[in-house]
Design a protein that fits this description.
alpha/beta, 200 residues, two-stranded antiparallel sheet
């Protein structure tokens, strides 16, 4: 079986590790890098990959991504710091933020509880949320985990952990289909889900 030169094979393997990228797509990407990219473009591409890994960090308060210790949302004094929207991923945070209707702050879990994937409570950013609720006088924690089995299990766990604290816990409801992921929802659907949240 004819193989590509080793550097190209290695690049194909690297691309195939990306989500939703199969062997054929990875092969196409690698060949594009070799045949279409100039050396300057390839150098810039590699520098940008390193720049992301070296200079983008998780916000120490909410778990969002930023270039400093605290993200711009947590720093913004015009936002409602008494209201926290809990999401599974950074992408979910950006999805909600781009609707431009929510003015509170966020908390990113970086996943959801999943026994089949070996993701437990200890693997998620839950402890810091509980600490925040203990330390701050909050009005509301909005659980915006995805409408999947894992998202529901995670929401229920957080609700149980927070029930001994004097904070209102709500869950986004209408508009998001069961089994769907928030990052795929259109803006109007997401807006209706936010408006239709209920006490949880």
């Amino acid at each position: 079986m004819l193989k590509y030169p080793k550097p190209l094979e290695d690049l194909i393997e690297d691309f195939s590790r990306l989500p939703s990228v199969g062997k054929k797509t990875a092969e196409r990407y690698a060949l594009y890098v070799y045949t279409k990219m100039t050396l300057d473009q390839a150098t810039q591409f590699s520098k940008r990959l390193l720049d992301v890994k070296e200079n983008v960090h998780l916000c120490k308060k909410c778990g969002n991504i930023c270039e400093e210790e605290i993200c711009s949302i947590c720093k913004d004094s015009t936002r409602n710091h008494k209201q926290i929207l809990v999401v599974e991923t950074i992408k979910d945070l950006y999805t909600v933020e781009n609707v431009n209707e929510y003015n509170g702050i966020y908390h990113v879990l970086h996943g959801a509880i999943s026994i089949s994937k070996g993701i437990g409570v200890e693997n998620l950013n839950i402890e810091s949320l509980v600490d925040l609720v203990k330390k701050e006088e909050l009005d509301e924690v909005i659980l915006a985990t995805n409408a999947t089995l894992e998202g529901e299990i995670t929401a229920r766990y957080i609700k149980e952990v927070l029930q001994s604290h004097p904070v209102k816990v709500t869950r986004i409801a209408h508009g998001l289909p069961v089994g769907g992921e928030m990052s795929y929802a259109d803006e109007m659907t997401l807006l209706k889900a936010m408006e239709g949240r209920r006490e949880y």
